[in-house]
């Protein structure tokens, strides 16, 4: 084994230990939901934003807040409501009076940063705000900057948006614009807990004991971990497999299954292929091996389900996008 390979192995071992400690801290509060926790940690490692969808009361907000406590980073929560304005998120200019002016008329405009100027931003119930307010996050999510008061300002790094939303068919919600959905690395479905998990939840939340979460990862360490997973090599054949999977989500592609050709209007974007390949790298790293097609298949659903758009017939018949992607994975050969 070369010195470089030995160093890489040691780095991956250290990364696995850090993530095990992070998962342990989150597990002090969150019961079950292993796939959800894994998905959120994948977003954290990838530097990609995450969207959690589920009915109220499943612990989406609690999970994100607990994760923020387990990493030594600035955290801000924004509760999205129909009357929320873009300036409430990105910030606004306020008039500061000059101390030396007796009559109080002189002053200057000073930019007051909004909650988006944090490392981890919880956009709680993001689909309860109007599309105009939702779009206030677009530049921040895509570029890591905010343009306000005629000036472009960089956001602190690392920067991550974790959003929660109720299912779109519920009252008082606004569908997220497709351009904003495409900025999310993952869309994670939060399922209802099992009977045993519910028993543990009741034991933890109705008694006197309150779990204490300790920060185990800092900002500099997180950036090092992100650089490490991006440096993991992938074969050309695996990259081509990701490309074929993405193209098969488009109804006009030769490999598209019948369900996609009949019910899908638009398939996944190139950003979807980037998300799949990066998430596959992370999953392989956590298992201590090279990325494979099994990793791609495991991450394809959360990375693509919000990027595939059904046509009118698909919407009317209640076709599942997950079923469409499942047929794609079954139909595209691994080699």
Describe this structure in words.
- A five-stranded parallel sheet has the order 3-6-9-1-10. The chain has a two-stranded parallel sheet with strand order 2-11. Strands 4-5 form a two-stranded antiparallel sheet.
- Strand 7 (145-148) and strand 8 form a beta hairpin.
- The two termini are 29 Å apart.
- Helix 2 (34-46) crosses helix 12 (270-286) and helix 10 (236-247) packs across helix 12.
- The protein has a domain at 232-335: Helicase, Ruva Protein, domain 3.
- The chain is globular.
- The longest helix is centred in the first third of the chain and has 25 residues, at 3-27.
- By secondary structure, the protein is of the alpha/beta class.
- The chain is built from 15 helices and 13 strands.
User: Could you tell me the radius of gyration in angstroms?
Assistant: 22 Å
**Biggest β-sheet: count, sense, barrel?**
5 strands, parallel
Stretches where pLDDT is under 50 for at least 5 consecutive residues are 1-6
The fraction of residues assigned to DSSP E strands is 15-25%
Instruction: Please give the alpha-carbon distance between the first and last residues.
Output: 29 Å
- Overall pLDDT level: 85
- The CATH topology of one domain turns out to be Helicase, Ruva Protein, domain 3
Number of strands: 13
DSSP summary: helix tally: 15
Give me the side-by-side strand order of the main sheet: 3-6-9-1-10
Coarse structural class? alpha/beta
Q: For this structure, what is the CATH class of one domain?
A: Mainly Alpha
Query: Which range best describes the helical content: under 10%, 10-25%, 25-40%, 40-55%, 55-70% or over 70%?
Result: 40-55%
């Amino acid at each position: 084994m070369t010195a470089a390979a030995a160093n890489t192995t040691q780095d991956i071992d250290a990364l696995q230990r850090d993530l095990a400690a992070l998962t342990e801290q989150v597990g002090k509060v969150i019961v079950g939901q292993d796939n959800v926790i894994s998905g959120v940690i994948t977003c954290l490692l990838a530097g990609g934003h995450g969207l959690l969808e589920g009915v109220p009361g499943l612990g989406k907000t609690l999970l994100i807040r607990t994760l923020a406590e387990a990493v030594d980073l600035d955290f801000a929560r924004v509760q999205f409501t129909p009357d929320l304005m873009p300036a409430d998120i990105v910030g606004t200019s306020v008039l500061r009076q000059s101390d030396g002016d007796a009559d109080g008329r002189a002053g200057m405009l000073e930019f007051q940063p909004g909650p988006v100027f944090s490392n981890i931003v919880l956009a709680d119930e993001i689909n309860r705000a109007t599309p105009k307010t939702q779009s206030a996050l677009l530049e921040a999510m895509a570029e890591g900057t905010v343009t306000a008061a005629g000036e472009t300002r960089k956001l602190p790094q690392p920067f991550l948006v974790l959003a929660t939303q109720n299912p779109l068919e519920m009252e008082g919600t606004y569908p997220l614009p497709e351009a904003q959905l495409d900025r999310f690395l993952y869309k994670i479905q939060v399922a209802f807990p099992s009977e045993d998990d519910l028993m543990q939840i009741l034991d933890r939340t109705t008694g006197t004991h309150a779990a204490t979460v300790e920060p185990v990862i800092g900002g500099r360490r997180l950036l090092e971990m992100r650089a490490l997973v991006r440096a993991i090599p992938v074969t050309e054949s695996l990259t081509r497999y990701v490309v074929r999977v993405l193209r098969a989500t488009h109804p006009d592609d030769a490999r598209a299954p019948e369900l996609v050709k009949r019910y899908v209007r638009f398939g996944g974007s190139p950003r979807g292929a980037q998300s799949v390949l990066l998430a596959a790298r992370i999953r392989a790293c956590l298992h201590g091996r090279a990325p494979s097609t099994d990793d791609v298949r495991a991450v394809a659903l959360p990375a693509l389900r919000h990027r595939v758009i059904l046509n009118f017939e698909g919407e009317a018949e209640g076709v599942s996008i997950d079923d469409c992607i499942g047929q794609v994975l079954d139909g595209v050969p691994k080699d």
